[in-house]
Write the structure tokens for this entry.
Amino acid sequence: MNKKKIKLIEAGMKLFAEKGYHMTSIEEIASEAGVSKGAFYLHFESKKDFIMTSLNYYHQEIAARIENVQKQNLAPRDSLAKQIGVVIRYIYKYKDFLTMQLRQNISIGQSTDTFIQQMKLQNFHWLRQNIENIYGEQMACYYPDIIIQLEGLMNGYVKWIIIDGIEIDRNHLGAYLVRRMDDLVSGMLKHEEAPLVTKNHIPDLYQGEVQVSELLFSMKAKINSLKLPEEKAGQLHDIIMMILNETGKEHPQKPIIQGLLVHFQRMPEFEEECKEMGRLLHIDLLD
């Protein structure tokens, strides 16, 4: 993504946080970024396209940083602590954007709602994978409860950071929260607690649809790692979003997904992902 487009996104998020999404005009976003209204439309088709692109941009930013930590082969607890630290530093850097998310109730169509839901799903599976790495499969019955409690701790600190503006030692918070998670797990085991939330309460988080979203997000990460030309990488990220939007519909159109996957079938690096996508969605890949 080029610097002018990023500048527009950051200007828009700042204004949304100050004035609200619906009270901010395209002219104001362009003015804040120091460009003309015409220049805005060179990068975005509409205000709706702008917010979708912005959501995607920030999501890619944090996902790439988390992936970099995961590649460092740290001990599971150290890795999760460092990943949480990355998230906290992201929060400090993009407080304007997150303030808007917390204070606004933006629903501008199914594509945005679907994307936000996919981010929630990915967050669930991000925490589940880390928890599994730490405690092992023998704690699987407790995964939902552990995730809910850890998310609660993280969200509590996030709101205090964003809304109340408190300064926390971001270098220590990750390890601190992992220790609190250990305390919670130890307490559940000590008191022989029965799981309060099981996978039966949240079946949608364990079904094939989620496997599709996880696969797509891993493809997004691979796009970043391949160091493709900016235009090509941007096109592939857009296609991922189109597939996400389509698979999130109540009645997804398989021919549309088949056509979109062709762009990845032409790249040997995505051969296995395309085959897996076809298997999960029960579709034949086009030649």
